[in-house]
Write a structure and sequence with these properties.
two-stranded antiparallel sheet; 7 strands; Alpha-Beta Plaits
Amino acid sequence: MASAESEHNDNEVINNYLKLQNLIHLQGDQHNAFISTLLTQINNSDYTFLKPAVFANLAVLNINAGNKAKGQEYLADSIQAFNNTSYNKYTNSALYKVSRAYLLIGQYAKAIEYTNQLNAFAVEHNGKKMEVRALLNLGLIYAELQLYDLAELRLNKSLKKAASLGDNKLEHLTILYLSGVKINQPDSNNQDILKLINRAKSIYESIGYLERLEGLTYARMARANKAEELLLQSLSLAVNNQDVRLSQITNQSIASFYFTQKNFTLALAHAKESLKIAIELGHKTEVSELNYLLAKIYKSLNDDKNTLIHLLAYVEFQNSNQAKAFVDMLYEMDKNIAIDKKFASLENEKLLNQIAIQKSEKYNQLFIFIIILISVLSFVMLLLWKNRNKMMLEKISYSMRDNLTGCYVRNYLDDYLPGLKSRFERRDSTTKESVGVVMVDCDNLKPINDNYGHAAGDEVLKAIATTLSNQLRSSDVLVRWGGDEFVLLCENISLTELGNLSERVNASIDKLDIIFEKNNISVTVSSGFALHDISSGFNFYNLLKCADNYLYQSKKQGKNAKNGGMYVPNTDYQI
């Protein structure tokens, strides 16, 4: 493998990989074309050593573009590929990107684990760039957990080493993160921050991140108009580049800015949008911080009910064992990455002190907030007491899971569809993958109920639901639509894949042999599927109606049939 690697340094495969590594955003056919070629090329035995790095880069790009499920699939592929390849010069890049991917989805423990591996490779192979990447990642994790003093120590060390190596990319990234850290430290000099930002601009053209940092710096300088202009410019670039991560943090920054300007309506809109994206990305610490911000906004708007909801969500995370586990892992890893043992104990002591200070600050904030809300709590508890019967009925009505099958019920879509619509509208209009549904209907449930009783029919429905679940990806959603009818909702799927899913569903249920009270019961289903036209406005219920029409055609053909096609608005898709 090593010889293959050395022989092909300048060929098309390596060039395609380097092109992928330098790609900032995943959009447009020109990007997808060379990526498809590269994915085919690395299946050649001469290039399997590239698999971990290629998959890890694609994981980061997809997560940044809002395709979290696809990004996680590539992440799993990258980790699996590590087991089948030995160390090579692309390993460090793969480990760095894997750690970055875990950071983007808020899985800090995993990010720390792979940063630790990156550091181990750096020590073993004397990899100076790997050492810088490990320091860079550790600094970023500290910043994510708001341990800004410790983040600055690591990032300053990373910046010095990156500059000495003459690595512009690492230097640019370090300056980017260091500027963000300094903005969050009250005693930082604003002019020094602006100098850092300008230094970063001189290395690479900005794509939105530097505008956000510059806007936050001007906000510190009380130059509100300039700050607002730059923050909105950053958000516009994020939307245009389909950079979901930048959209999330910029919306959060804008919400905080408008809150300080007492424009609570705009603050609320941006905070809610940021929270929605943070939940989609799985960023638990930022979800917590946004809940705290929303509690303050709602309090300013005299909305006591929502103030309490978001405050309790914030408190729940702050008291969770997960938050403590993040800090414990940081402590252990920082001892491994400490370059100078002489200062290791001092820095670890500083880490503990910083944690204690932040914990004290959080408790002080909570204490003040809770005192303010004592009257609110009393009022809300009174309302809860008076309306307990009504709330119990609502709770039953809006239960998210069907008691018999464990599938989601229709009401679940009320919460799910807004996020689905948002992701659909951010997709590249030229892609073949879109949102699709498969409607499944049991062919012979009534005879089963008549011959064996409704308890047998229930067992059949449970067996169908279990079989359907086994055919789905982790990102797909299964809904019991009513009676013996189910809906499979799939994102990032092509028409061919949707048709194959429909065929697998029919075949797998046809093979079922359900035993009920010593009776062997067979069952079949009919299905209809439809894929939403990616260039058309999102309309889920019309998409569902289209699939239902195809299901009707399947029913007319007899048992165990399937039919489907594209749903295009304003066309005659009626069967």
